[in-house]
Amino acid sequence: MQRTRIIPLILLMLNLSAPVTAQKHAKQEEKEKATNLPAVIWRDPGDISTLNLFYGAGGKEHAPDPNGKYTFLKEDLKQSSPKFDVEDGQRVRWRIKLGREAKPETAATRLLWAAGYFVDEDYYLAEVKVTGLPKLHRGQRFVSSDGTVRGARLERRFKEVKKLGTWSWFDNPFTGARELNGLRIMMALLNNWDLHEINNSIYAVDGERRYLVSDMGVAFGKTGNDLVASSGVLRDYANSKFIEKVTPNHVDFVMNTRPFFLQAFNVSYYRRHAQMEKITKDIPLADAKWLGQRLAQLSEEQIRDCFRAAGYTSEEVEGYTKAVQKRIAELSAL
Fold first, then answer.
1. Which of 41, 148, 184, 298 could serve as 144's disulfide partner, Cβ 3.0–4.6 Å?
2. The pTM is what?
């Protein structure tokens, strides 16, 4: 009697698991097909001087409504910064990031996009009202009792964009290419010191495999180990050195990521962080000049718009604009 009950139960479990297995196989096949798509890391943006850097890659048409209705979906606890997903009244999904990385990342995406690199469509809102918001595990200090969230970077999410994984600065299809070298220089220009592989994404979209730096929240401070590095600190950024050494054929840009010497006891950690310093070193002079000539086309107003869009004060906007212009001038003078 007991056996006759078990057999139907097993059959039911097999029937329930079949669709799940089929779905996994379908996703795996889709991912394998995507790996055969052409790999791209840069695209000519055309006349850089005409780009609208206030709205960035998504343009005004994709900008979030500051007075719109946003509904909480889920909190993301995987990364270091407070993040959660929402949906607006047009059923568009957004990932909200809070904290010190919200402003620097918004500004950084605009400069990278102007240089021709792929970026997420990021926007900054000083305040956004979210309904159904529970008590957050992280970032609750940025939330008022009425559900108003302060200092939010909103990243537009696209169903048609599939993330295939991450990529390494030292192992990718573009090693030695001018476009990759330009991206390496941009990390130094932005002082984006968290160059872990996890912050680099590969997206399958529009018949391409797009390689991009998808997390630049620690930009616009100073590079260094965990004890001294900063992000979004104008004084630190303006006072930090950009170019380290120039030879007849190569340029080394400043990138300080070597850990505190006591952390050398953790050999793998120390080696991994020390290796990041190589990302901005030994770059062909011709590639540095190429990028400098492109960035020199940006007007002062365009650079100013990057920081206005990120919610910085007028004093900070002017300070960052001058600091970025100074770095571009150094690059152009090589």
1. 148
2. 0.89
